[in-house]
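Thread title: Can someone regenerate the structure for this chain?

I was given the following input by a collaborator and told the matching structure tokens would be attached. They weren't. Posting the sequence so someone can regenerate them.
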Amino acid sequence: MPAWVRNEEERSQLLTALRSTPPPEPVRGSKKKKEEKPQPTVDRKLALLKLRDVASSSLREVLWQDSEVREILLAGLDETQPELARVLSLGVLVHLTTSRKNCSELLKNEQVRLSLSQLQSEGQPQEVQEKALLALVALAIPAFQDCQEISEDLRDVLGKAAARNRDNAQRLLVFRALWSVSTVCDSPELFFGNDKIWESLLQSLQQEEDLDVRESGLGLLSALANQQTTAHFLWGDVDDEDDPQGERVREDIFANTLRSQPARIRGRALAVLAGIVRDPQKRPSVWNYVSTASVSEDTEMSKGHEVDLGARRPRSTSSDASGRRERKGSDASATSKKSAEEQEAAERATMKDSIMAAAARTELPSVRSPALRILLELSWDETLKMSLIENNIPELLLDAWPDQRLGLKERKLCKHGHRRLVDWNKARIAEELRIERENERREQDAMQFEEDFQVMVRETPEMGQADHESHQFEDWSKRDREKTAMMKEDQSSKEFNKYLRFLLEHDRQSMESEDRRARLVREEEEAQAFAEKVRAAREQATTAAEEAAQAMKRVGGDAVLQARDAAVAAAAAAAKAKMPPRLQALFAAAEAAATGARAKEPLTQKGQLDEACKAALQVADRYSMTVEEKTAIAAEAAAAAATWTSGEERGKIARSFALATAASLGMSAEAQQEAAGAAYAAATEDIDLDVGRSSGYP
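Best answer:
Regenerated them for you:
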């Protein structure tokens, strides 16, 4: 018997009610209206509601494993069934899809896929379509992951459900489901390779679409753009004139980045571009993209203008004057047309202007953040660095550093991007200056050589002697010029290397200074956090010790028992607060001494110190400390408990307790003296139980 019912009798009754058919249609001539749709019986309706309740519980997987229930549910999706029965059956399926195991089995069932596809066709009741769409949306994730080989038909149905001719609420539901799928799907080709989904996605990017639909479509594209293989689909080859669809996608993405769009639309569109520019091959085309919408409009207007001019042009030329006037008018019109085209081309919107406007300081963080990510990706491209510098992108990145609305990591990346562009520009300017100086020196040397040669030719009386001397002079001049050039080049290289070393040293000092400041701030924060933790632990230990002492006092315990219970409670509270063993021992010792002093019959000072020492040793035994550690802990606990003494007296107390503890633990005489000296030196220092030392803290 299946586990989703209590007994077999209840299951048989429920299945009988589910199999009950509606009453037959009235015969011809009956008084009932023919427009009334058949309704399921009351028992069947209640049975379907019962199944829906079971499907919404933890028994949904067991329910779908029942073959008879599965057959009844699938039969309830048939078009011959009453509308209410189909709606209730779909409601059961929607609840079943909340289980991942059920989703895989539903998709592997061909009848389920066929029924859900048919219920999305035209002519189906609206409520049935809505319920079927909810089931499809719930099956979206496995349709793109585990069962993607057999779910192409369901993906087509989802693409049709998101088409422009559907209701906006329905399209928004589908797009948000696909958005969620795209964040976990490892095969973006399922989106771009499906014609229905891709076409619906392209329609959602149009300017006339609803804002929520556009935002969901752009969000889906931004999630897909983060994967490495999607840049080619979203931003094809700009030079490919045979790809009108790619140009349409680029133009739609660009139109959504304009400043006239709402902030949420711009942010999503810029996030898509941020994913595209992660591909190094797409960075130049994105940065240099120019809108083509105005180009096509200008072309059509210019063609219409030429037609009008041709219609108005006179065919007869009666005189030379009229011909001259005609030629003059045509030249003027061509000149005005050319100037108008140049002006419109200058005013044409570009992608770089849109990105720079989105990265401005006045923009919202949701728009500025993806724009800055785009600029940071573009700053890695060597071919674009000059263009970025000419458009003042380094200053734009540097302006993001004081913007507290952005995250710290993002601000640091902007600062590093600014430094990367500035350093590259410095190196470029230095190289250009070196080349320019080298060319000037070569020109001066050539001019000097020419002057020397002309003087030598004029002053030589004999041509043979002149030729001989000329050859000798050429050899000497060549060697001298090479030697001088090499010396000057070496000197220039030394100066340039010296300048580069200065820049590197300056950058290194700046980074070391920043690291030191960050380390000091971090150490101060850690010290404050540890101090707060120790104070809280001390308060907990004090409270626990007082409660334990009061409990022992109520049962008639003397001061010794009260002190020991208080020490145990204080040590337990300190251990619960994750304090190091040393602070646990000090807390226990302090509470033992304080409780013994507050008792009705208080302990003597010697008794208080003894109880403090025992409490500390008890903590040391619990943590299996060494003999030296136990000796030090006992001496320090006794010195800390002696709050009524001065520093010198605490040293003596620590020394005596260290000797006594070392002797009881079986240490040698030399080790006892060393332990006593160390305890005396440590006890003469100030002991602060509220803050404690960080030594020994894990």
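Residues 402 and 449 are 58 Å apart (CA to CA).
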